[in-house]
Amino acid sequence: MDSISLVGTVSIIVAGLTIAIGSIGPALGEGRALSEALNAMAQQPDEADTITRTLFVGLAMVESTAIYCFVISLIIVFANPFWDFVIQNAAP
Amino acid sequence: MDSISLVGTVSIIVAGLTIAIGSIGPALGEGRALSEALNAMAQQPDEADTITRTLFVGLAMVESTAIYCFVISLIIVFANPFWDFVIQNAAP
Amino acid sequence: MDSISLVGTVSIIVAGLTIAIGSIGPALGEGRALSEALNAMAQQPDEADTITRTLFVGLAMVESTAIYCFVISLIIVFANPFWDFVIQNAAP
Amino acid sequence: MDSISLVGTVSIIVAGLTIAIGSIGPALGEGRALSEALNAMAQQPDEADTITRTLFVGLAMVESTAIYCFVISLIIVFANPFWDFVIQNAAP
Amino acid sequence: MDSISLVGTVSIIVAGLTIAIGSIGPALGEGRALSEALNAMAQQPDEADTITRTLFVGLAMVESTAIYCFVISLIIVFANPFWDFVIQNAAP
Lengths: 92, 92, 92, 92, 92
Known about the structure:
Chains A, B, C, D, E: The record marks 63 as: Reversibly protonated during proton transport. The structure is a homopentamer. By secondary structure, the first copy, chain A, is an all-alpha fold. Helix content of chain A is 88%, strand content 0%. At the B-C interface, α1, α2 and α3 of B face α1, α2, α3 and α4 of C.
């Protein structure tokens, strides 16, 4: 197995697993926050505006951890410096 | 096993596992939020509109983590730069 | 084991595992939401229409994560670019 | 397997796993804090301002642990001194 | 596998895993403390100042454990004495 196969293979595996594993935490965390928000709204309908605003700003912060994983996945697929080096050296 | 078989095989495996593992978290998170929403509606039927609106915007954010996994899966299948490089070099 | 056998074998295995693993999360999430919906209806029979409508739109979003897995499985079986490449090169 | 393949391969694997594993804790922690904040707002609507301010300063601290992982991932991909040394020595 | 490859490889692996594993505990701990603080504020709004001050001093101490991991990761990447020794001895 030469360098190109190895680096390419590993990049594909890691790109997929990074976003797969990295989406579990944010999805569960957002689901929990969302369910509590709806519960809070039912208890205090008058505060629905404040609760909704806080919820979405908070969800954006939780979402950011998923976006970090997505960015790393895309970098590994499309802007991988290790792959660039390997194919440059292998090019005739 | 040559480069083409290896990269192709790994791409198929990772594309499948990425969306398979990546759908567990969002599905459970959305299910939890949805169940709480229905519970909240039963407690405060008058707030059903607000609860529904918040629910669907929130679900869209949870859904986004599943969509990240789906995008990476599709990229690995149809826009895989590693595969493109390998078959270009192998072409006669 | 030549390339055709290998890519074909892996495609079959992954197509099956993708939808198998990918159906666990949505099924549990939908089951939970549905059970809560029935509970909520029992508490507020007058709101059955609103609860049902919210339930089905929400279930459709949870279902979408299962559909992503289904799509990837179908792509791996019927529109697999890796398989197409391998059989084209092997054709006489 | 030569040094370049080895160091490149390991860098890709570690960059992906670092952010994937590192995003689980912050996402769950933020989700928990956010859900409790919404619950607290429902109990004490008058304190919504204080609760929101405390929440976001706290979330920023939890988020910082995810950012540490993201920084280490980016360093391993783009500013890796081990990789720099290996390719410098291998260059003709 | 020579000394340089081995030490470099292990350094990369450990740098990534250190901050990845090391961020799980602080993130969950901070999330828990933050959620309890918000709950306490809702019960005793008059004590919000005291609760907030105690929370942030406490969070800073929990955060310090994450910072220790971050520092060790950076030292392993950028100021690794083992790596310095190995490359000095290997240099021609």
